[in-house]
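Predict the 3D structure for this chain.
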Amino acid sequence: MTLEEAIVEAVQVQAREHIPPSPVPAPLDTPSPSPSRGNPFGLTAREIEVLRLLTQGLTTTHIAEQLMISPRTADAHVRSIYSKLEVTSRAAATRAAIEHQLI
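Done. Predicted structure below.
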């Protein structure tokens, strides 16, 4: 089983068993991390929050609810994450997040 297949399976199990995501509160005044060894893609603090929720299998609507932002804003964050990570799917974003220890 590849890493991507394992991630997809884990997300499906979480959804099937209705496992609630763990809330990950972050201070609002957290500065945006700059591209560095720990964050080579230049993701902002908010994008890291969105990526963490995305890797837990949340939909864009649920991400918006968790972060108290509009679904359109959540979608903009997801698109920005995809662009910065150079991926085109949630599974690929999850894989990149794990491989590069972004979450």
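The first helix runs from residue 3 to 16.
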